[in-house]
Amino acid sequence: MLFQAVSHASLAILLIYATLSPKVDALVEDGSKGRRFICHYTTWSRLRQGDKAYTIEDIPGQLCSHVVYNFVAVHEKTYEITAMQPEFDIEENGFRRFAALKDRFPNIKLLAAIGGWGHGGEKFSKMTETRDRRKRFVASVVKFLHKYNFDGLEVVWLYPGNFERGGSVNDKDNFYYLIREVQKAFSDANREWEVSVQVPADKTRLDVGYQIDALCEAADFIHVIGYDLRGWWNNFADVHSPMTDRPHDEGNFVGLNVQNGVNQWLHGGCLPSKVVLGVPLFGRTYLLDTPEGNSVGSPTIGAGSAGEFTNEPGYLGYCEICAILPNMTLQWDEKAQCPYAFNRVEWIGYEDERSLRAKIDWAVQNRLAGIYAFALDLDDYRGQCGEPYPLTRVIQKYYEETKKDTLVTWSSS
């Protein structure tokens, strides 16, 4: 978690301003929960071949304040929380092995992420459409957290209100009701559990699916997806986590960037102390239309080749990218604050230490609650290009330097 330090002198000036300004009710020191750097663990990474298989026991808990287990699911008939991969989650003790991380890292907090892209939205939509179904779901979550000793739930509904993914016009309200009811159940249980919500930066998705101000009030944290804002499906080469608009951004791509995406949540009523910025440890890849057309915005004809470990066209983990960079031409998009690389055939937009520092600096300046990174198994976790976890360590360094800073927010009328 990344905060802006406030000196005693600065705090005194802010207090004077608070007294004089008619628009400010109070100066609030917030962030007792917000000191966080959240790492993600993906269960499917265990299936990689040989020593590239990534297991729960590989998780470097000393680098993270929180680790998230991806994913659990909504049961399509009972509407309760359930294992997504019971053969691993239950039969191979995935849940209990994950909880056992606390034995090695006593200060770590563990969350379960429910949903994800493959899960779809229809199960969420149907579960939330009646109070009785929501009540059943919430009760099952409480039971799950007690049973497996997790510390909270991250709801990854992609995306409420999206008809193509099984949504309905009522999702926007029902999603808020769900989070409010989960929060109440956690409070009634008298446990320090948290409920967070992973949300998009795309304004078109926000309008149909999210009551921004109410959702921010109900949830403990809002995790803004600051990546996959571009990809091979758009048919032009680009970095997928740009910080700001560039000259070539037109139409729906105007405003589709990290800063604008986060600011929509802040301007919509979210306290900075509740907003966590998501950053990728992977890149998006493209096939170039011509060898000469290699600048940002150049035409492309499809997804880049699948990687040896991630095995998905158009997608490479940093563990794969760092190994091929010596054979590519490297460039920097100054406005996007992101690197890219290309050869005569393929083009990659990705994150490196410099681009992550730019995002972290912006999060610090805007007093956000922290950073989450997706995912541990996409970093150079075996250290084939140098020290293991180079990108994770960049974020962890800032977290350690700023985790005790005071976060100051204005409570406005």
Q: Calculate the mean pLDDT score and round it.
A: 91
CATH topology: TIM Barrel
**What gross morphology would you assign?**
globular
CATH class: Alpha Beta
Number of beta-strand segments: 17
Domain unit count: 1
Low-confidence segments, given as residue ranges, are: 1-31, 408-413
Order of helices and strands: HEEEEHHHEHHEHEHHEHEEEEHEEEHEHE
Instruction: Please give the largest β-sheet.
Output: 8 strands, parallel, barrel
Compute the number of helices: 13
Domain GH18: 35-402
Signal peptide: 1-26
Protein name: AAEL002959-PA
Organism: Aedes aegypti
Helices and strands in order:
Blueprint: H1 8-20, E1 24-30, E2 36-42, E3 66-74, E4 81-83, H2 86-89, H3 94-99, H4 101-104, E5 109-115, H5 122-128, H6 131-148, E6 152-156, H7 171-188, E7 194-199, H8 203-209, H9 212-218, E8 221-225, H10 258-267, E9 275-280, E10 282-288, E11 300-303, E12 315-317, H11 318-324, E13 329-333, E14 338-342, E15 346-349, H12 353-365, E16 370-374, H13 390-402, E17 407-412
Parallel strand pairs: 2-3, 2-16, 3-5, 5-6, 6-7, 7-8, 8-9, 9-16
Antiparallel strand pairs: 1-17, 3-4, 10-11, 10-12, 10-15, 13-14, 14-15
